[in-house]
Design a protein that fits this description.
mainly beta; 4-stranded antiparallel sheet; two-stranded antiparallel ribbon; 30 strands; signal; Galaxin_dom
Length: about 240
């Protein structure tokens, strides 16, 4: 005749079966009775927990994203996870990837040494040979504005482009590079010497937005609602309707 004892604890439930005249059988099961482990003595179950659907001993193993890993690696005792892998004290974890770099910095899923003065992480992209004093332009290192400029994640020589001109109403915000010695920033870069000029038109919400126009054929005039064509080669202001 058999006698059954069921004990519920967290994710584990243990079934103790006593068979008269035979040995006591102890089982630790996780998420049902299909994934069980048997024990001969109750003290053997000390530290038992579930890792996914499998029982494990928390003193011998560590659960890393439902994968059972050994806590012992040579003379090292593991107490951390990195993704579903173990992480030792002399390793660095970056987005679930283990790197054999002690006390490192992360750039996305890549690790680098804190002592590398030339390492520069730009928006998740790592450069290991950046010049000292470099800054980030999107994912690209540049000299921080000494001889180079940055616009919309692209690096330019300042002799060619030294400014960044926002494009009105662009979603997401976009930009065009321009040369401030030869151009002005309107709704687009326009030459300082030329037919195109910049007019600031009033929006319905009361703000102003830049708009380039050809001043030989068009007018920027009060009430600054729109660019209007010239009449008899002249600009005529109009009174807005109320």
């Amino acid at each position: 005749m058999s006698q059954y004892f069921i004990i519920s604890y967290l994710q584990i439930f243990c079934i103790a079966t006593v068979i008269f005249g035979q040995q006591l059988i102890l089982r630790a099961c996780c998420n049902g009775t299909e994934n069980c482990r048997e024990y001969n003595q109750p003290e053997e179950m000390f530290g038992v927990a579930c890792c996914g659907n499998e029982p494990m001993n928390q003193f011998e193993s560590i659960c890393c994203e439902n994968v059972t890993r050994s806590r012992r690696q040579g003379n090292t005792f593991i107490d951390k996870c990195c993704g579903n892998q173990t992480l030792a004290y002399d390793q660095t974890c970056c987005q679930g990837v283990v790197h054999n770099i002690p006390n490192g910095e992360c750039c996305g899923s890549v690790a680098f040494s804190r002592t590398n003065a030339k390492a520069l992480c730009c928006d998740g992209s790592l450069s290991l040979n950046a010049e000292l004093g470099s800054a980030c332009c999107g994912t690209i290192p540049f000299d921080g504005g000494i001889r180079e400029s940055c616009c919309a994640g692209q690096v330019y020589l300042k002799d060619i482009y030294d400014g960044c001109c926002p494009v009105p109403d662009s979603i997401p915000q976009s930009y065009n590079p321009y040369n401030s010695k030869r151009q002005i920033c309107c709704d687009q870069p326009i030459l300082k010497i030329g037919n195109n000029k910049c007019c600031y038109l009033r929006n319905s919400n009361g703000t102003f937005a830049p708009k380039s126009f050809d001043y030989n054929t068009s007018c920027c005039a009060y009430p600054y609602i729109e660019i209007t064509p010239k009449t008899n080669n002249a600009c005529v202001s109009s009174t807005p309707n109320h």
